[in-house]
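Query structure, 186 tokens:
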């Protein structure tokens, strides 16, 4: 919660508390309406207090408009850009993009025909998870089969370890790795 949101909440709470206490005092007869009217007239007839009351009123109006029309910034929204926020009755869990990327890299490196794996995890506002994998493959790789197996395995591992559904796994084969022996022969 930002500072301005906290100030708005404290001011609102204080004003509601004062009004509630004033109403209670009036209902119980501890103060009379005439006394409240006299105090308000005295305050509002003084130019200094009138200017202070006007300034405070303008600030409160601006805070009310801000709180009503502009949603308070929550830390979970800012964290969403860094990962996926999961909540349950026990608390919150933030799984960072880096964690998911490391999971994907581990899966991809587990395939013998892959090298130089780079992963990017993309989260949209609806928490849909898209994974882009860029890699080099060995000359003996069957790219279509490798891609299909890799996509299935990545979805399976992410679901098992994080309980997140992956919308898409996009594979980009950047190049075929040339073995050192082949370079030496050429």
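Result returned for the query:
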């Amino acid at each position: 919660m930002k500072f301005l949101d906290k100030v708005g909440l404290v001011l609102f709470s204080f004003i509601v508390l004062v009004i509630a206490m004033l109403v209670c005092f009036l209902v119980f007869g501890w103060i009379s309406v005439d006394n409240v009217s006299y105090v308000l007239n005295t305050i509002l007839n003084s130019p200094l207090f009138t200017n202070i009351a006007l300034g405070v009123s303008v600030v409160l109006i601006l805070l009310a408009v801000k709180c009503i029309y502009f949603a308070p910034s929550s830390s979970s929204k800012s964290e969403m850009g860094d990962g996926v926020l999961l909540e349950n009755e026990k608390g919150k869990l933030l799984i960072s993009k880096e964690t998911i990327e490391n999971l994907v890299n581990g899966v991809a490196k587990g395939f013998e025909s892959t090298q130089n794996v780079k992963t990017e995890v993309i989260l949209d506002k609806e928490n849909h998870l898209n994974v882009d994998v860029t890699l080099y493959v060995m000359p003996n790789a069957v790219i279509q089969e490798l891609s299909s197996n890799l996509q299935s395995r990545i979805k399976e591992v992410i679901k098992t370890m994080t309980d997140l559904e992956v919308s898409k796994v996009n594979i980009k084969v950047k190049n075929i790795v040339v073995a050192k022996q082949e370079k030496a022969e050429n």
